[in-house]
Amino acid sequence: MPEHTVQAPGMPERVEAYWRANVALIRNLLLVWAAVSYGAAILFGKALAGVKFFALPLSFWFAQQGSIVVFVILIFYYAWRMNQIDAEYGFEE
């Protein structure tokens, strides 16, 4: 199915392309975050439940601490990638 985009009046194509790149990046990072947050706790929960780490199941640590660590890494990646996208579309500071 072809992608149809309607350009807002007065919005240059460069700005629209920049916005599409930003939204695509956010969508992809949210998918990674959701996969890590729910995947570690739900998908691998039973397999990791038998392994104890500081008297708690390893699945707990992956779900609680792992998702936070990945979220912080995604924040830094987003900032780094947006700097590249800004430069690519001429919006660098």
Automatic annotation (TrEMBL):
Keywords: Membrane, Transmembrane, Transmembrane helix. It comes from the Bacteria. The keyword Transmembrane helix applies. The chain crosses the membrane at residues 29-49, 61-80. Residues 16-91 form the Sodium symporter small subunit domain. It holds the Pfam family DUF4212. The keyword Transmembrane applies. InterPro entries: Na_symporter_ssu. NCBIfam families: Na_symport_sm. This is Solute symporter protein.
